[in-house]
Amino acid sequence: MAPDMHPAHANPVAWSIICDFAVDKAMTLPTVEKQLQELLNNDYVYKHWQEAFNGIMEAEGDTVQAVGGSAAPPQLIALKESLSNSILILKSCNQIFGPPPTIDEILDPKEEKEVGESQYTFKGGDAEIAAVVWHELALKQGEIVEVESDTEDEQTPPKLDYPDLIHMYCFVSSMTLFVKRS
């Protein structure tokens, strides 16, 4: 939907102007009103925007308070409490070893912030993408064969965790019993 197709109170461009006003100390209320009037034309009604203006003016330079307010929504508070209680229950049942993670660590883990190099990143643009596609098609059709180099180090075996080891042990034990009975 085009920005001018939104109702005045839901127009993203209008709210962008309001956010700019909240963070730009040099921007004045008359300037913001003028921009909103130009954007919304006859749909601009001061009283519809008065609460937003008052919130920004009361924040007096506190950008965080002006943009997001100081109070978290009740749903967010309830969800954080529920998550915190779940962490405590897991810890009390010995399902978390070591110090329990914080809510922020659960919601925004370090691993998700670490972005490695993607195999789908093509610095050469369209030409490199086309070359990769042609290479993969040629491999599938048997036109070319990839040969592994002997100089590469041997691959390290996969690490097995305890459940895998227990499963493997049980499988081998059952096979041993089967062989002895036969």
Give the SSE string: HHHHHHHHH
User: Structural class, from helix and strand content?
Assistant: mainly alpha
As a percent range, the share of strand residues is under 5%
Report Rg: 30 Å
Helical residue percent band: 55-70%
Oligomer: single chain
Total number of helices? 9
State the separation between the terminal residues, measured CA to CA: 72 Å
Mean pLDDT: 74
In brief:
The chain is mainly α and 182 residues long. It contains nine helices and no strands.
Walk me through this protein's architecture.
By secondary structure, this protein is mainly alpha-helical. The protein contains 9 helices and no strands. Helix 1 (12-23) runs antiparallel to helix 2 (29-40).
Compile the SSE list and pairings:
Layout: H1 12-23, H2 29-40, H3 46-59, H4 63-68, H5 74-92, H6 103-107, H7 110-113, H8 126-140, H9 162-181
Helix pairs in contact: 1-2
List keywords for this structure.
182 residues, 9 helices, mainly alpha, single chain
